[in-house]
Amino acid sequence: xxxxxxxxxxxxxxxxxxxxxxxxxxxxxxxxxxxxxxxxxxxxxxxxxxxxxxxxxxxxxxxxxxxxxxxxxxxxxxxxxxxxxxxxxxxxxxxxxxxxxxxxxxxxxxxxxxxxxxxxxxxxxxxxxxxxxxxxxxxxxxxxxxxxxxxxxxxxxxxxxxxxxxxxxxxxxxxxxxxxxxxxxxxxxxxxxxxxxxxxxxxxxxxxxxxxxxxxxxxxxxxxxxxxxxxxxxxxxxxxxxxxxxxxxxxxxxxxxxxxxxxxxxxxxxxxxxxxxxxxxxxxxxxxxxxxxxxxxxxxxxxxxxxxxxxxxxxxxxxxxxxxxxxxxxxxxxxxxxxxxxxxxxxxxxxxxxxxxxxxxxxxxxxxxxxxxxxxxxxxxxxxxxxxxxxxxxxxxxxxxxxxxxxxxxxxxxxxxxxxxxxxxxxxxxxxxxxxxxxxxxxxxxxxxxxxxxxxxxxxxxxxxxxxxxx
Length: 471
Description:
The chain is of the alpha/beta class and 471 residues long. The protein is 42% helix and 11% strand. Residues 21-63 are annotated as: Disordered.
C-alpha cells in the first residue's frame, strides 16, 4: 500500500514534515477536459468583471492595520520555520500586535481545532485551513464574516485571483477567510531529459507537443522505447490523478448527495489504464523516497504534474546542501493539457475571538500587503501569491529561480490561475481523494479494472458517508 500525503495538501502542509515539535510555540513581538477548457474561459471572463454576490456589500479599501495593537493566538499545521518567518515579517509592518503561534501536525491539529472552536475553550483567534478543511468550516458560524462593514476584505478579495476569491466565500457569498497563495498547476520537467528524449526544453514547444492526453500517451510510448525502458515521460500514474481530479468541473458530491458522474470517473480511470498499459509513467510512486531522489540524483522521469508549490517543496528539497549551483537551470515549467489548481491555505478568524481587530491585521497583512507578498512570500519563500497587484509586480520585476534558470514562470502561473474554475469544496473532498488514490493503486498494480475501480470508489465513499446516493 502506498503511503503519501493527501493530494490536496498545500505546499505549507508538505513542509510540515519539518515541524519543530508538536504544539510548539513562537511568540514574537518581532468530456471532462472540454468542460474544463470551457470553465477556464468563463473564469477568465469573470476576472475582467466579477458579478456581485450577496456578501459583496461590506467594506471599503484602505483600512490601515499598521497601528493595530493587542495579542493574538494563531494555530496552524504549517511548519515552525515558516511561521517564524511570517511572524517576523508581520511585526515589521504591525509592531503593536504580539503573535503566539501554536504548531501541530495535521490530524492532531484538525481534532483540536474542531474541539476548540465548538466549545470556545482556549480557541485561537486565527487559524490556517487547508483547502479541503476550509470547505468544511466556511458554511458554519465558527468563522468570522469578513464581508461586513467592520473589514475591507471585500475590496481586497476583488483583487485576488478569481478562483481564490470564489473559494473564499460561503454559500451566501460572504467571505469567511482569505488565502495568501494561488496554486495553479502544470508540468514541471527536467530540462536535460526533455532535450534528449523530446528534442527541446522550450516550454511552449513542449506544450504544443503534449497539448492533450492522447499526445502524452503517444510521446510517452516513444520515450519508453527510445530509453530502453529506463525513462518514463511521467513520474507516476498519480500525476494523472493530480491533474484530472483538480479540473473535474463539479463537486465530488453535489447538493443532493449524488456522487460525481460515472462519465468523469471512467474517463479518468480509463486514462490511467492507458498510461499503465503503454508504460508512460516511471512507476516512481509519488511522495516516496524513490520519487524524491528522482528529482535530482536519479534519471527516472521527465515530467511531474504538480502545482506552483512543487518547486520549493518537492524539487528543491531534494537538492543536497552545497549543490544548488550545480542544479542551476535544470528544471522548467510548462502548462498542462487543461488549467487546474491543487491545494491552498486560508486564514480564518474565529467568530468568538475577543481580538478581532488584531486578528484581522494579521489576515490582511499576510494576504494583501504587496510589499510583504513581493519581497517576503515570493521573494524569499518562492510562493505564488493570490493577490493580483503583488503577482503583477513580481512579473514586472522578472521573478526567477536558480533552478529554473532565466524562465520567468510566474507569468505562466498567472495565465493558468486566471483560467482556473473553482470546484466547490465540501466535507467530502478529503475522503474522495483518499478513496480515489486507493483505487488508483489497485488499478496500477493490476488488482482492478477501471470498471471495478469506479465501483470500488463509490462503495468506499458510501460506506463512510451513508447519505451519498449512487446512481
